[in-house]
Amino acid sequence: MRLRCVVLDDFQRVATEVADWTPVADDVDVVSLAAHPGSEDALVAALADADIVVTLRERVAFPASVIARLPRLRLIVASGMRNSVIDYAAAEAHGVTVCGTASSSTPPVELTWALLLGLARGLVEESNGLREGGPWQRTVGADLHGRRLGLLGLGKIGSRVAQVGLAFGMKVGAWSRNLTPERADEVGVEYVPDKETLLAESDFVSVHLALGDRSRGLLGAAELALLKPTAYLVNTSRAAIVDQDALLAALREGRIAGAGVDVFDIEPLPADHPMRSAPRLLATPHLGYVTRGNYATYYGQAVEAVRAYLAGAPVRRLP
Length: 319
Description:
alpha/beta, Rossmann fold, 2 domains, 7-stranded parallel β-sheet, 5-stranded parallel β-sheet, 31% helix
């Protein structure tokens, strides 16, 4: 019997274009879905006849309640090697294998700087003004050289963001609960002993922490109040690290100069979500990982995972 593989959230319809699925074509029918399942019932209906699911990042949750309603499901392939929204115990209990793929840290580094530079130089406002025949020059850009960049997190992504900041001539400091002076010195940045100091002294703050119990809600109203009124905040990590209501209030009241955000509490964003109309916000629809190279890795290794599973030797098993 042929198996059915469903690829979720293929918004650009490229899953079968950027990778070669012919190695599993004799055994598997591949269907990609561009429409995001907006509820648990919609997800179960979309996957009712699926034996294999390829899911993108952590946008679609697979709790025990979903897995129990998918009796045909045998394999979940998640992009990346960490996924916090899959119930691994439930998957094991129902005989569902979960595998991952590699993921490059380069695309989110690049998008971080696209957002930061876009904010600093008012690129969206200036571009729209030029196209619409508005005033010639509306904004006065913020300098990077000599300004202070504060990084929350100095892991793979944070350290590479730091290197770019140093190349711009910025003064770069970093903080996280696990950061040591030795690690900061290795990257060539200043070790900041507490997040309050980092927030209060930085002109630009960028978030590069993994989401967990200790980082959830790390930046709330009190922390955002420490930022300078001329400071910019960039978050390409996880929405839940920054209190969304507190951020919206800071933007609406002009208590910070602006924010660049690529991650949201609900994805895709509903049409009436307040983030869609917030002032001083440069927002992108979670594009941090979305590049052709990364997609080629995700879907290419998804094919490998399916092929290995069919051969009885699953690869890159999670967790």
